[in-house]
Amino acid sequence: MLDLGLDKLALVGVVALIVIGPEKLPKVARTVGHMMGKARRYVADVKAEVNRSIELEELKKAQAQFREAASEVSGSLNEVSEGLNEVQTSFEEAWKAPALDGQWSPNPQSVRKNWRVRRMRTPMWFKERTGVRRHVQSGAARVARHRPK
């Protein structure tokens, strides 16, 4: 930049006063001021445009990274859905297979018939922990049991 001090500006002002004259000097100074403002605005616009182009390039790079990540995620989702389909088909095949060795079958009549047998298979410690009743009590017996003493 120009190294203009107060003494150099005063010298330029005196020369401009002598060369241009006192009548035209305010108009020339106003014109120079307008041109300086236009030049500053032009430089600011160029800077803003350069910044926008740099930000656009950065956004394009980020978009490419996000697209790569999305394609990786979609690939893993495809793998998961394939595994889920395999499990579902194996489950459906197992469901359609006949019951083996007289074990549980989806027939509701056999379920009603064997509920006592299945209930007896549950261990006593589990029944006590979960609060399953083991004996039938009348209403009066239940009241007497829980009545405060």
TrEMBL record:
Its main location: membrane. It is a single-pass membrane protein. It is found in: Cell membrane; Membrane. InterPro entries: TatA/B/E, TatB. One of its GO terms (biological process) is protein transport by the Tat complex. Keywords: Cell inner membrane, Cell membrane, Membrane, Protein transport, Translocation, Transmembrane, Transmembrane helix, Transport. It comes from the Bacteria. GO terms for molecular function: protein transmembrane transporter activity. GO terms for cellular component: TAT protein transport complex. Belongs to the TatB family. Part of the twin-arginine translocation (Tat) system that transports large folded proteins containing a characteristic twin-arginine motif in their signal peptide across membranes. Together with TatC, TatB is part of a receptor directly interacting with Tat signal peptides. TatB may form an oligomeric binding site that transiently accommodates folded Tat precursor proteins before their translocation. PANTHER family: SEC-INDEPENDENT PROTEIN TRANSLOCASE PROTEIN TATA, CHLOROPLASTIC. The Tat system comprises two distinct complexes: a TatABC complex, containing multiple copies of TatA, TatB and TatC subunits, and a separate TatA complex, containing only TatA subunits. Substrates initially bind to the TatABC complex, which probably triggers association of the separate TatA complex to form the active translocon. This is Sec-independent protein translocase protein TatB. It comes from Inhella gelatinilytica.
